[in-house]
Amino acid sequence: MPDTLLAAERPAQSESSILDAIIIGAGISGMYLLYRLRQLGMRTRVFEAGGDVGGTWYWNRYPGARFDSESWTYGYSFSKELLQEWDWKEHFSPQPDTLEYLNLVADKFDLRRDIRFDNTVTAAQWNDSANHWTVTLESGEQASATFLFTAVGILSAHTLPRIPGVESFRGPAYHPARWPHIPVDFTGKRVGVIGTGATAIQAIPEIAKQAAHLTVFQRRPNWAAPLHNARIDKAEMAGIKTRYDEIYARCRETPSWFIHSADPRKTLDVPPEEREAFWEKLYAEPGFGIWMGNFRDILIDEAANAAVTEFIARKIRQRVTDPKVADKLIPKDHGFGTRRVPLESGYFEAYNRDNVQLVDLNETPIDCITPDGVKTSERDYAFDIMVYATGFDGVTGAFDRIDIRGPGGVRLRDIWADGPRTYLGWQPEGFPNLLMVLGPHTARGNIPRAVEHGVECLAGLLEFMRRHDYRRVETRADSVAEWTDIVIKASEPLLASKIDSWQTGVNRNVEGRNVRRVLGYNGNGVHYRRKCDEVAANGYQEFAFR
Ligand code: NAP
Questions:
Q1: Residue 28: CB within 6 Å of ligand 1?
Q2: Closest residue CA from atom 36 of ligand 1
Q3: Which one of 71, 222, 390, 516 would you pick to mutate in the ligand 1 pocket, going by the greatest count of ligand atoms within 8 A of its CB?
């Protein structure tokens, strides 16, 4: 058995110049993948656009950025030593602590020696006769490897608002996903924020505390619920450390790999007072319970959804002093939970402050951005700082930004124009030796849990290839058709599939992104695990090897 997958037959380029694997991205996925590929003896290089490890947590340094899954379910579980070494300080870790954690991981496993930072991959080309991928970097440099792994995350292709004049603003303007490393001082400043998604909902209360005046431009409001973060003291952390096996086992058993899972009852089967008490309890609890631990039909049944939506709307009215502002903050075009629910810490109360103003863009749309600020149909607003919290070209956006070409020069972007086609989200159809962590059509939910699962699945596939001395893997067309069908059918019952959001592939700031697509496997994560296990146990018959 060869040492590495590539021990023999490296044509054209010299033995040493062709790597076994190239990974794009050194975030949570790329870091763990590198660790695993090293264990398989693969000579691997990671190219990372950022200046250090961390991906999402490297880039998103905006005020208020933190987890909304429980910290102790979010870390890597692959190393018991690491689990014991690291103390989470808060139940929902703030970005600086998370980045510190990821740096510890990079140091502990000496990951950086195989990572090239500040290297953006712009293109990747498959060479069919030589059986390798060649990637091109922004600098024009190239590197080749038998396997190309994407570890680009699902929310890394940030998008600026498509508003005339967006480049003309004179003062500093930031997208949260490209936040400066030196914290922005809002003291005494007039600040304009465009967007009211999960990012803005975290940032707004923090900016409001500092700014002289904050104006929030809202196109569509989002449902949000309280995070209820709290510190973790030493004793509590010691207790968590004794329960890690149990915690991760629990995550493996829930549909979205969080600790929360739905209540087995149907909403309207429960008497109104009991329902109300249940929702009050969930609303007062930390984390995603109100979304994922709710009655089992709230995300699929219109009437059930309407009932919980009415409860959450009432909460907003209770928390926002001005009824007109409260009304503007209540979504009318989608029910609770049908877009990704932001968890907030004082978001609604921020609008009770004298220095915060909400501008409803449905009443007064933005005409343009000017050198001084924003011009709406009603008036001009002058700002010292602008924040464009306008989101991401989700899931496929990061792939589209790389010119990925398979056999015959076929472009991945074109093949996926109407929606991704993959097998299990591991590999796109028609692209040999291109493997994906968190690719489209995988199960996602709690991201690090999905990352570890995805990496383990790919490592299993590579081990299988090594045992059989295979050097090329491709999906079978009928398997892709079957999986794509399963993914689409799994989304159909969800009310969310009828709503525009990054999760359904809609982003009006990107040309052509106005048609809904299914981007993830939205079925039960437990079923997804089972399916992946079966594929492995049956010898990966859904793939063709050479
Ligand atoms: P987002 O949810 O897509 O929100 C973008 C916001 O910008 C929306 O309110 C959108 O309005 C608005 N917008 C976009 N273009 C606009 C324009 N041209 N004019 C006016 N408004 C415009 O993006 P996000 O807030 O960055 O969150 C994305 C995802 O990142 C979240 O859903 C979540 O999965 C993840 N996230 C996670 C955390 C966490 O774990 N704690 C924190 C932040 C984000 P419309 O709704 O009308 O399009």
A1: no
A2: 198
A3: 390
CATH number assigned to the domain covering 18-53+111-157+394-474+526-537: 3.50.50.60
Residues in Cβ contact with 272 at an 8 Å cutoff, skipping those fewer than 6 apart: none
Nearest CA to ligand 1 atom 33: 198
Overall average pLDDT of the 33-39 stretch: 98
Q: Which residue has 């990496």 as its token pair?
A: 455
Nearest to 34 by CA among 122, 124, 128, 109: 109
d(CA 330, CA 317): 9
Nearest CA-CA partner of 394 in 152, 55, 154 = 154
Please work out whether the CB of residue 531 comes within 6 Å of at least one atom of ligand 1.
no
- Residue of 368, 376, 502 with the most ligand 1 atoms within 8 Å of its CB, for mutation: 502
| CB proximity list for 536: less than 8 A, separation 6 or greater | 457, 460, 461, 464
Tracing tokens 């103003």 back to the chain, one arrives at 357
The closest-lying atom of ligand 1 relative to the alpha carbon of residue 161 is 18
Rg (CA), the chain: 24
Q: Is 161 in the pocket of ligand 1 (CB under 6 A)?
A: yes
Taking CA atoms only, the protein residue closest to ligand 1 atom 14 is: 390
Longest distance between any two alpha carbons in the chain, whole Å: 74
pLDDT tens by residue, 277-318 = 999 999 999 999 999 999 999 999 999 999 999 999 999 999
The bridge status of strand 44-47 relative to strand 18-24 is parallel
Cα–Cα distance for residue pair 283/448, rounded to 1 Å: 25
**Total number of residues shown for the chain:** 546
By C-alpha distance, which of 2, 59, 55 is closest to 24?
A: 55
Q: Which of 159, 193, 199 to probe ligand 1 with, by most ligand atoms within 8 A of CB?
A: 199
Helices 447-468, 28-39: crossing angle, 10 deg rounding: 30
Confidence of residue 540 (pLDDT cuts 50, 70, 90): very high
pLDDT tens-digit readout, 203-230: 999 999 999 999 999 999 999 999 999 9
Report how far residue 291's alpha carbon sits from residue 268's, in angstroms, rounded to the nearest whole number.
17
Q: Please tell me the distance from the alpha carbon of residue 148 to that of residue 134, in angstroms, as a whole number.
A: 9
